[in-house]
Design goal:
This protein is α+β, with helices and mostly antiparallel strands. The protein has one domain: 3-Layer(aba) Sandwich (Aminopeptidase). 24% of the residues lie in helices and 32% in strands. This is L-2,4-diaminobutyric acid acetyltransferase. Its EC number is 2.3.1.178. Pathway: Amine and polyamine biosynthesis; ectoine biosynthesis; L-ectoine from L-aspartate 4-semialdehyde: step 2/3.
Length: 179
């Protein structure tokens, strides 16, 4: 059975349910990501695998029963104390409710993330929403935020994609104890 946590958003107009994904969420997640430019689309199969194999480190938000948000992530194989956040998607009609940070908070508070002391993600310089989200999370969790170019436009993307900066949040202890 999927874990479900229900919350009333700040505007009070709808209930938000947060839960782990299941394989049947793969297609709706893929459609959500397609609706959330500038996110890079992955294959439907990739999103299906995320919903199945990585369900413990991914999270969905549903608003009035409709998919409103998604975060994909995984613990680094070589460093299971690091949670890498792959994508954060919030449906256009659900923006402004703070869903991105709520999903991150709930993800970090899961038992599967109890030993996480570091969160990493990559962000392009022009993605203001993602920068604001992770800066907000760092402030709220008392984490130090650092960034550096990681996958560069010339070296890794052959000029077809902006440089991705590796953003690292370091928590003073396990992330679940900082809230």
């Amino acid at each position: 059975m999927a874990e479900t946590i229900t919350a009333v958003p700040r505007d009070g107009d709808a209930r938000i349910a947060f839960r782990k994904p299941v394989p049947t969420d793969g297609a709706p997640v893929w459609a959500l990501i397609r609706a959330c430019a500038p996110l890079d689309e992955n294959s439907l199969y990739c999103n299906l695998l995320q919903c199945d194999h990585f369900r413990d480190t991914c999270i969905l938000a549903e608003r009035d029963g409709q998919l409103a948000g998604w975060i994909s992530g995984y613990l680094l194989p070589a460093d299971p104390r690091t949670l890498f956040v792959w994508q954060v998607a919030v449906a256009p009609e659900a923006r402004g409710l703070g869903l991105g940070r709520q999903m991150l908070e709930r993800l970090l508070d899961r038992p599967e993330c109890r030993d996480v002391t570091r969160l990493q993600t990559t962000i392009t310089p022009d993605n203001d929403a993602s920068w604001a989200l992770f800066r907000s999370l760092a402030r709220h969790r008392g984490a130090r935020l650092a960034d550096r170019p990681h996958f560069t436009r010339a070296t890794h993307f052959e000029g077809r994609h902006a440089t991705e900066h590796m953003v690292t949040l370091r928590f003073s202890g396990a992330a679940t104890h900082a809230a």
